[in-house]
Design a protein that fits this description.
Blueprint (H helix, E strand, L loop, with lengths): L6 E2 L3 E6 L2 E6 L10 H14 L7 E6 L10 H4 L11 H8 L1 H10 L4 E5 L2 E3 L1 H7 L3 E5 L3 E3 L13 H9 L1 H8 L5 E2 H7 L4 E3 L4 H13 L3 H13 L5 H15 L3 H11 L10
Parallel strand pairs: 3-4, 4-5, 5-7, 6-8, 7-10
Antiparallel strand pairs: 1-2, 2-3, 8-9
Helix pairs in contact: 1-4, 3-4, 6-7, 10-11
Amino acid sequence: MPDLTDVDFDGMSVRLDGQVLRLVLNRPDRRNALSSESTRAVATLLTDLGREDTVRAIAITADGEHFCSGMNLRRERPTAGERPRPTSAHRSIDSGPHRLIGALARIEVPVVAAVRGHAAGLGCSLALVADFCVTSDTAVFSTPFTQRGFTPDSGSTWLLPRLIGPARAREMLLLGRKIGAEKAAAWGLVGQVVPDPELDEAAEALVRELAEGATTSLGLTKWLLEVNASATFDDALRTESLAEDIATRSLDFREGITAFTERRRPNYRGN
């Protein structure tokens, strides 16, 4: 496992804090815009960590007044001269931001995002792919792709219809409507809105609760939600029984049952 005392990936820092992996967007002067290189590097790291038992929760936070304005378009724009080879944009997106969003969706530990200010484009998907999005009352979500002359990416055409339905997804994706925190909560886009001064504390409490949970059952439940979203009912029942078979072989299951019979709070170890 790499040393994760404090690693910086060009706009994102990664730090292992006990059993919590902290991913911090740290370029506030650019509204925490991200590069293909940084998203690619963090995606690779998350893929590797998915094979480890150390991490039990992931926290995504941001420095400054805004969560993330998306990709750093000034940096990603091709320079004058030879035109890039066809499919170069496709390959760059798939190897960077799409790998990052996919890694966060598939990693079998819970992910919490704390969002204040603007979460636009990739930043919006980064917030919404998290299992929990704790939101400041200053938050604004947007997907302004068509307003800039290109098409949605970062999983937004998959995430938004499932979270808020196709009609509202069209408002955000085709019209570029900005959605404030209260409307985002009313639409079901996010689960929790708190006053801005309380954001960090509220997100941290949730991260700690998840990090102290039964990691195997949490990870399997996350997996079930993903695979059963497109499964038949009979297939969903079968995958549930298979996942439960695995979970009941864990030490945390034994601890959970023992704590229940002894009427005490369980002390889960994540295995």
